[in-house]
Batch of 2 targets.
Target 1
Amino acid sequence: MTDCVFCKIVAKQIPATVVFEDGDTLAFMDIGQVNPGHVLVAAKAHCENVYALDDAQAGAVFRAVARVARAVRAAFAPPGLSIYQANGKPAGQTVFHFHVHLVPRHDGDGMNLTWPVKNPPREKLEEYAAKIRGALG
Ligand code: 5GP
Ligand code: ZN
């Protein structure tokens, strides 16, 4: 896609600091570096979000995520690692080309995701699950 920043990185039209590459994925340093070692694993093809991935791309991306995560752990020994992936503006997506964040984590590092649990009754879980099962392809 012509004005997509990650497509430009994949096409080497703009620079990025690459750590890993295979046929379907490119992993490079996030320019913002929430903590040192913050890497993005992106699909090489322009897929806007998780819904656009085919099975081969989805498999390739998570293989790359796990492999790069092991390397980040070996390189930085962070006490924690968050894997974060946003789809759509309400989820916090700002670059609309599928990517996964690997963020090394430290106590008190200021990164925050509030998690407002609702703890609904079991019948609600059954109702929600039935909807999802019915929608599975
Ligand atoms: P999102 O909010 O969509 O999950 O994350 C987008 C990420 O892309 C941000 O963390 C931002 O720092 C990173 N980013 C945006 N533009 C560039 C760029 O040109 N190069 C690199 N390496 N990262 C970028
Ligand atoms: Zn793109």
Target 2
Amino acid sequence: MSTITHYDLLLAGLHLATLDGDGWGEVRDGAIGVVGDTLAFVGPVDSLPAHASWTARRDFDGAWATPGLVDCHTHLVYAGNRAGEFERRLQGVSYEQIAREGGGILSTVRHTRAAGPDALADASRPRLAALAAEGATTVEIKSGYGLERETELRQLAVAKRLGAELDVDVRTTLLAAHAVPPEFDGRPEAWIDVVCEDIVPAAARARLADAVDVFCDTIGFTRAQARRVFDAARANGLPVKLHAEQLSDQDGAALAAEYDALSADHLEWLSPRGVDAMARAGTIAVLLPGAFYALRETRLPPIDALRAKGVPMAVATDSNPGTSPTTSPLLMLNMACTLFRLTPQEALAGMTHVAARALGLRDRGKLRAGLRADVAVYAIDEPAELAWRFGAQPCLGTLRGGVPHWTEAR
Ligand code: NIG
Ligand code: FE
């Protein structure tokens, strides 16, 4: 095996939290060598190959490098805002009640349908840019605010376009079964017919969706309806995910497990049976502390049971206008620890390699030679600091597929 000795880019003066091996996978006085879009060297600077050379080099002063963050659950492509609804919720009106009155998701649907592709991109671009500025290098974006074929596909196309514009690896998920559109009020089965027979195949044909998701809940869809959408996804060659057990226990996670879903997400109401089903199938649990916080939930996801049964836990922003109007992945690391009692290490693993698995990606999420060169660099003294602070912005920049995006010197 020949050892690479010339790097397109060498980063040095760094400590590394590789997340490879035990604990943080810590390497003091490390270096990272990149060839093309791939990590070619990850290790102590003094074990760089003799005669190593590089085309470009950047030296840091003891900053920390981690794998690029993977935000595996967002709804960030939408128009309008829901601040008024927030004010009503503060007066005691519930999220479910607002949804039943035709607000909530349907209010964002009205604004999103009315926005053309450019307006939708302009509204959404700052949100994706904010995630990237904190270290996100891969971001999943769902549709679900169109609830008609044209606007669902427009959301997905805008998501891909923003990924290309901002050089973030965007993965798209079709969530046409997010709510019953006004045109189908009282006829959810008829809407599911359209989703299965028309929208899932159209998204697959246009290669606009990497996965299919369903909101399975009292204000969403039943388990039987989710099953129909999963069958359609399977018939069209797309993997599935599920918004499961967020507001009530629908036994959705077990359905997700049955369909080899990439993940089941939210999970505040997950039952022991659901935990077992996920453990058996290897389904990733995606925890969304921003939605838990914003809805002032009191019922915690069963973290101890998930940990005890070895269900991998991812953490994501759920960036959306209704239940998690945040664009801060680092704040979610803090909330995952403070609200859900994850350790800082579990939280960072949850937003890197575990999150990558929740998107079906095995080529990223750790700092290891051979993996994709997605790296985040932070001005911190130790890795737990990422989860300890909240409201801080220590990110000095990222490599995304080997391409540097440095923020201004600070
Ligand atoms: O993940 N639960 C359903 N979907 C989103 C909220 C969408 C909205 O309220 O606009 C969520 O919490
Ligand atoms: Fe969500």
